[in-house]
Every structure is written in structure tokens, then in C-alpha cells.
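quick q for whoever's on today - can somebody do inverse folding on this one?? i tried earlier but teh output was garbage lol. C-alpha cells:
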């Protein structure tokens, strides 16, 4: 089993782990609802102003990603779509759609747990944030509680495979799985 190690980067605050744990609690809500377990919180001036977890299936909305919902609740809370000075904490690296919303919402910083090697929009697969056409500066920090974030995703997909009767070991004899 490949493990993703937490990485130390510049500008990591002492609160990053605390807020990522809050995002993990949001991801657990998604897990319990049968959604891909990604959670997010938005923090400004030390206060959580927005929360969200994936609700794509429940809302039948392909844009109901944790980040989009958290940005929406944060904007409603402060009654302003401009989230200057806010930090978004999310358990999985934002996809390109969510990275675009981060730019449009004018968030200052993104902190993610696990990198997304398929759809990561903050540098792992594509980089929507750095050198963006809007000329907005957003600091990105990855790898905070990465093993825990990735572990929850792996547990979810394993559960889904088992519920569908798929062990995840295609082409392997059941006795060889032991």
C-alpha cells in the first residue's frame, strides 16, 4: 500500500492540522451519506465561516463539490462573495472546477490533504492556480494529514466495491487473494 507522507512547505501554520481535522469531519459526513468523502472548511481571521462536503449524488448536481458548497456557505455567512484573506481547507486537492471557484472567490490560501493524481487542479495534474489569467495570488499547501485523508477515500471505495460484489482484485483467483 502506497502511503502519502505529509510534506512540510513554507507558510504552514500551527492551525492547519486543526482545520484539516474539521474538514475530515465534513468528509466523514459525506462517507456516511454514500458520497465520495471529501470535506472542506473555509476560515477567515481564525473563524470557520463555511463548511461543506460532497453532495453530488444527493443533490443530483455535478457541481456540488465540497469546495463549492463551502465557498457558498462562507459567502452567505459574511454576505460577500469576495473571500479575500480566507483559507480553504479540503481533504483532497481541488479539481480544476473548484480551483476556478477559489480564484473567482478571491480566497488567499488553499490547504489540501491528499494530492489528486487524476483530477488535481492545484499542480498535481494541472495547475489552475499558479500564473492564472486573473492574476490572483493564492498560496497552496498540500500534504496536511494526507494519510488520513487518503485513507478515508480508500475505505469508501473499498466499501463501494464490496457492496457491488467486486473485491477489487480483477483477474485474481479468490484463493490467491489471501
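ok took a stab at it. sequence:
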Amino acid at each position: 500500500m502506497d502511503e502519502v507522507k505529509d510534506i512540510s512547505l513554507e507558510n504552514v501554520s500551527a492551525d492547519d492540522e486543526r482545520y484539516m481535522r474539521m474538514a475530515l469531519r465534513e468528509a466523514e459526513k459525506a462517507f456516511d451519506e454514500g458520497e465520495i468523502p471529501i470535506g472542506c472548511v473555509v476560515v477567515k481571521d481564525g473563524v470557520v465561516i463555511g463548511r461543506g462536503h460532497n453532495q453530488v449524488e444527493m443533490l443530483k448536481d455535478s457541481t456540488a463539490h465540497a469546495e463549492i458548497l463551502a465557498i457558498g456557505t462562507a459567502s452567505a455567512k459574511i454576505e460577500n462573495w469576495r473571500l479575500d484573506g480566507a483559507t480553504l481547507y479540503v481533504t483532497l486537492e481541488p479539481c480544476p472546477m473548484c480551483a476556478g471557484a477559489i480564484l473567482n472567490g478571491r480566497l488567499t490560501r488553499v490547504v489540501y490533504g491528499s494530492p489528486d493524481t487524476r483530477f488535481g487542479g492545484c499542480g498535481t495534474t494541472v495547475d489552475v492556480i499558479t500564473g492564472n489569467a486573473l492574476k490572483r495570488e493564492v498560496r497552496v499547501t498540500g500534504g496536511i494529514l494526507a494519510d488520513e485523508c487518503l485513507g478515508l477515500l480508500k475505505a469508501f471505495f473499498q466499501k463501494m466495491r464490496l457492496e457491488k460484489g467486486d473485491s477489487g482484485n480483477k483477474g485474481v483467483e479468490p484463493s490467491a487473494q489471501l
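fwiw The two ends are 15 Å apart (CA to CA). also The beta strands are 39-44, 47-53, 86-92, 109-114, 139-142. so keep that in mind when u check it
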